[in-house]
Amino acid sequence: MLNGLAQKRSRATMWDVPRFAEYHSYEIIIVENVVDARYWVQRGAWLLAMHLLGYAQALALSRALNGLVVVVGNWLVLLAGCWLLLTSKGDK
C-alpha cells in the first residue's frame, strides 16, 4: 500500500485520461488502476469529466490480488486491479 503522498501522486495521473481523450477523441478507452481507485475521492468528478467529453461507461471490473482471467480475442488476460471501459457516445 502506498503512503498518503505517493497515493495522491498516483491518482493524479488519472487526470491524464480525460486530457488525452479530449485531444485525441478516442473511440474506446480502457483504464486500469489499483482496486482502491474505486474509493478515490475525485472518482465522481473524473467520471463527469469523461461524460462531458462524450464518453459513456460501458464496463467496470474490480478484483482483488487473486485476479480474474478474461479472454480478449486470442489473448488470456489476468486482471488484478480495477478496469474501466469507456466508449464514445458519438455526440462530441
Overall description:
The protein is an alpha+beta fold and 92 residues long. It is built from 3 helices and 5 strands; from the N terminus they run H-H-E-H-E-E-E-E. The protein has one domain. The strands form 2 sheets. The chain has a 3-stranded antiparallel beta sheet, covered by helices on one side. The mean pLDDT is 78. It has helices at 4-12, 16-24, 43-52; strands at 28-33, 55-62, 68-72, 75-79, 82-88.
Overall body shape: globular
Beta-strand percent range: 25-35%
Secondary-structure element sequence?
A: HHEHEEEE
Instruction: Please tally the β strands and state the result.
Output: 5
Radius of gyration: 14 Å
Chain-wise SSE layout:
Layout: H1 4-12, H2 16-24, E1 28-33, H3 43-52, E2 55-62, E3 68-72, E4 75-79, E5 82-88
Antiparallel strand pairs: 1-5, 2-5, 3-4
Brief account:
About 30% of the residues lie in helices and about 35% in strands. It is α+β, with helices and mostly antiparallel strands.
Please name the defining characteristics of this protein.
92 residues, alpha+beta, globular
